[in-house]
Amino acid sequence: MLAQRGLPGIRIDVAPPPPTEVLPRMDIAVFVGFASTGPTHFPVAIESVAQYAAVFGPDAPLAWDAVRSEQVYANLGPCVRSFFSNGGRRCFVIRVTRTLALEAAWRRPPAGAVAGHGIAVANKFAIPGVLVVPRAGSPPGPALAQARSVGSWSDPLALSTALVSMSFSLSGATDLAAPRIGFTTDAALTAGDLVVFGDPGATSAGATQIYATIDQVVMAGGTASLSRQVQATICATFTSLDVTSPPSVMSGSVEVAGVTAGAVAATLAINPSPNVATRLRFDGALPSGLAAGPWARWSGAGLVVWMRIDSIDRGAAAADGIAWREAPLNLPSPMPSRASVLTLDLRVAGAAGDMARLRGVGLTPAHDASWWAQVSDDVAYAHDDGIVPSGQSSSGPGFPLAALDTESGDGAPLALIPLGVSGLYGAPVSPSPQSATQLERDGLARFDAELFLDPGLATAGIDALIEQADVIRFLGSSPRPLFGLHAALSIGESGLYNEATLLAIPDAVHVGWARRNHVQAPPATSAPQAAPAHWFTHRGPCAAAPKEALATQPDFGNFLDCGTRALAAPRLTGPADAVPLGPFLLTWSASEQGATYVVQEAWRPDFGNAREIYRGEARTLDVEPTREGIFYYQVSALAGDEQSQPSNVVPVVVRDDEWIEAEPAAFAAGGERELTRIHRAALRLAAASGELFTVLGLPRHYRAPDAISYSGRLRAEPDDAAADADAFDFNERRALSFGALMHPWALFGQASGVVPDRSGQLTILPQAGAAQRACPPDGIVTGMLAARANARGAWIAPANEPFKDVVALTPQIGTDAWLALQDAQVNLIRADTRGFLTLAADTLSDDDQLEWRPINVRRLMILLRRLALRRGTNYVFEPNGDALRRSVRRGFTLLLTDLFRQGAFAGDTVAESFKVVTDETINTAADRDAGRFLVELRVAPSLPLQFLNVRLVQSGERLTVAEGQ
Question: Given CA atoms 358, 360, 361, 367 in this order, what sign does their dihedral have?
């Protein structure tokens, strides 16, 4: 074959330069702290403020600051927002709280003996009108949902349900050995559907509803036919109550899940009229927390009755609703010709009027849209390795409720039975009553180092920490994930190195909190009401009462109007204990039929500032105060022109928050030791991994002397009197170069943002967390570190860069303390004409290791470690000889030369900046025989210019200015 001829001329090919190696990312941070929602003790990747808000919710309220008269919030949210505001692009967030697993790991109690006090719990919700049929042959029970994550964030939510049914005809129903049934239908049924034989939602007396799960669907008659052979299993049968003589009253006992502690005595009054409620009357007082929505299970007279509580009569200690009795799992007789396939719609309403809907929910585990596919955040994220779980939006979780964790996997029940659900959304149901305070249910009532540390690694030294972590996660007899800040080791565990390089624990600097003491209300001193004039004389405008008209009965010794009488004073009942800010209930006894009642509220015990808050015939009142304090209530009855004496006075103590922030003196006595413990653990983790740099904040109230003292205590040596038991020994002093102290706090607040709406128009909306919030500088500094690493490199000192969205500092630190703080290696944030910035960039490194003192030096060495790991994997299994030495030296020389050109090293030439050693001085024959090859990278890091000397020289009439370093 002839070669193709070329055209005459000259062509010059220019070889492209070798591509510059992309450096590993050095801008990803890990934030560890308190959040309202989200998975616990698990690192979640976050790439925007909106995504953080969707996953972890609003800033968690913690306690009341009595000194500043303000609410104390978690620092995690403001720090994450300030991180993104100051240039951060990606971070991981670890929500810490006292979970049952964490408490068990710290206490190591016998199985099942973990104390529940102060453990984070998720709210439980009764699914209105729905029962659950367990798999183990147990009787039906009320169906429950749980909040998607632990904590009190779901307190304002309310759940309602609606039934979606599709009727279809069937034929040839046959008995397949009860309780299984077979039939033929043209309806598009699939395995996992729930069907009901009969009219779903029928409540007429004697109506029977038979529920079955579809086990198998087979096409019959070939592909040309739409007929299907269906096999199903009957799982529950219920019959509307039916009696022959109205009403039938039966004695028994009742249980309401989450409300009654076991069974309590109650009578059941059954009304046979269609769609007329059955009445359940409690023999004793009405259970506290009973409300409309949940199921009541009554048993007695050989019957088990399920009553859907639709309304409450508190005066009669009774509840009304539609009721059904359990029936045997028999086949329908006669065999049915119609049935309906059922799904459920769920709707959750929030306090702000927002709605979340879940449509077409399957009622068996085998359904394609099964309810049990809705899992909690802890389960969802743990199975997706930090990636947003399937079925959720990219910005975070969708539906706020989930199936119970105990019902996941093999524990899933047989089916949900929508026995009391109608086609329209019913009354919403709030969470089951909780006796613990919000902070206790958030798992944050006990504030100490245990919240932030893994118990298996809390005392581990630098050399043993990584090995011990691997034993806990992979090699132990019962592997488990890591807790607290040590969970940062789980980020990128499948790669060469940890994806994150920065670590911040902003909520470790809280001073703690304590339960507020109960305030006793001063006794009321209201005067009795003066008797009306017509109790002593005739009625009319000219009637006059005696001067001392304090009688309790009319003076029938005079001629009085025949309708004159004394009304009975009502008896008022209210909360016995202090109540949180929110609605509470007042009830009172009847005076006489048809009476009108007037309720008065006062803030003074003598009722000097009383005001009327209600007038009407009802005998209950929901009161919702707008502030905390002590309120006094009394009620009077009116009938015509008669008025009763006021009732007894009920004082109500309303407290805005059950917890108050601890005082600085209490923090100094014990809290500072806990903070030191957390900070040292973070430094050990960073040093053991070799990949993390820790940004450490200080408590808000710290002045310059406090910050200097804390720095000395944190860096104290074991033989120092100020050192704690866990102080860094000689072999661990290098950990001090992996962290830096930053102070003081900053007042941070994001401005509003311009966001395009669905029509493409620009709308100005406030960003999440736009309110100004005082927070430690952890997020601001990590954001600046991330931005500088992206723009110029990790070897650039993080200083002399104005912070964004910072409007003030707290507390103010005078200029006379600046030098002392710098000597103590506390990086001071201060005000400048350019804004707020720091002009120091020091680690906590000891004085005998001054070369490690600049932050940029430690960050550069972390970068070199990552580069060496990535490049070194290319040489594994290469022949260990001179060719390998030359190849390794050439590869690392090219790599470091690129860094030299970018200004990472000191020196005017490559030879003065670094050296790659692979020769026989470090690689001996013994190393070669052992299959080991050593490389030494000797570098001279560039140091920042810290001081500029400006010299003014006056010589005669001439003034010159000389500058130098």
Answer: negative
